[in-house]
Design brief:
Helix content: over 70%
Structural class: mainly alpha
Number of strands: 0
Distance between the termini: 24 Å
Number of domains: 1
Number of helices: 14
Order of helices and strands: HHHHHHHHHHHHHH
Largest sheet: none
Strand content: under 5%
Oligomer: single chain
């Protein structure tokens, strides 16, 4: 990969790692579902007018708004409000093992020894994290793992669904998710108008960052890299996201960094690495 594209890829990783920190800080200034609603509204406003889709694609996008918009993003925002940023980032990374299991169960994909070992390491890392003091209470842990499951389900839907450009998908999923998350905010949260009036640069900055930088700028650059380079050269960079998020959580938010997080997080990342990385020998066998 040329140095320019590698720099772009690393820049995207930094944006996504910072996104975890921004969400964590943002939900201290604004209720999480209200923040999520505003994020979706801004994404839809900036993307939908410029990325039309065919009418037959709308039911698919509406379904994806449930799994990717509400189940993944809304629960991510709620869960991070009650968990350390680094631990939350590691929990959400379980979306990759979940997606692998779903692909085996639903799509009848072959698991293979390498990916099986990766699954064992990932879930073993979860067990180690569960024994540590940084794991949040059962409810936010369940919310973050459900968010990871929502991401995994969404990847299977995208794989089997109609071909929609990435930015069109992001915009229309956001549009369909707005009433869902707004209804959740109305039902579970209080004094939204007062919260909007009292929100400072932290809350509004989180809306801008999560919508523009993370969803539009980063994903646009990322899919550009995927068009120019093989997937197995680009996707492994995402393993740096939880590592950087843990480090930023320690430096910026004062999160703890104990042995359970180091060992458990290391096992999770190593397991995901075995799942997503393609080694040269395996690539030659697949090509033959």
């Amino acid at each position: 990969m040329p140095l320019r594209d590698l720099s772009i890829g690393l820049g995207v990783i930094v944006i996504w790692a910072l996104n975890i920190i921004v969400i964590k800080v943002g939900v201290t200034d604004m209720p999480p579902l209200l923040l999520t609603t505003l994020r979706f509204a801004l994404v839809a406003l900036l993307l939908v007018p410029f990325h039309p889709v065919a009418r037959h694609q709308l039911p698919f996008l509406a379904l994806l708004s449930l799994t990717f918009g509400t189940l993944h993003f809304a629960l991510l925002f709620i869960g991070l409000g009650q968990a350390e940023a680094g631990t939350g980032a590691l929990l959400v990374q379980m979306g990759t093992p979940f997606a692998t299991l779903l692909a085996v169960i639903v799509l009848k994909e072959r698991l293979g020894l390498r990916r099986l070992i990766g699954l064992i390491l990932s879930f073993g890392g979860m067990v180690v994290l569960a024994g540590g003091p940084t794991l949040p209470a059962p409810l936010p842990t369940a919310l973050l793992l459900t968010s990871a499951l929502g991401w995994a389900i969404s990847q299977l839907l995208i794989k089997r669904g109609p071909n929609v450009s990435p930015l069109a998908l992001a915009g229309w999923v956001a549009l369909f998710a707005i009433p869902q998350v707004a209804l959740g905010s109305w039902w579970f949260e209080r004094d939204q108008l007062a919260a909007l009036g009292a929100a400072g640069w932290v809350g509004w900055g989180a809306v801008f960052y999560t919508a523009v930088m993370s969803s539009i700028v980063a994903y646009g650059a990322w899919y550009g890299l995927l068009r120019r380079h093989p997937v197995n050269r680009v996707v492994p960079l995402t393993l740096l996201v939880p590592v950087l998020a843990v480090g930023l959580g320690v430096l910026i938010l004062g999160d703890t960094l104990g042995p359970h997080k180091l060992i458990g997080g290391g096992l999770v990342i190593a397991g995901i690495g075995l799942i997503v990385l393609r080694f040269k020998g395996g690539a030659r066998r697949q090509a033959s």
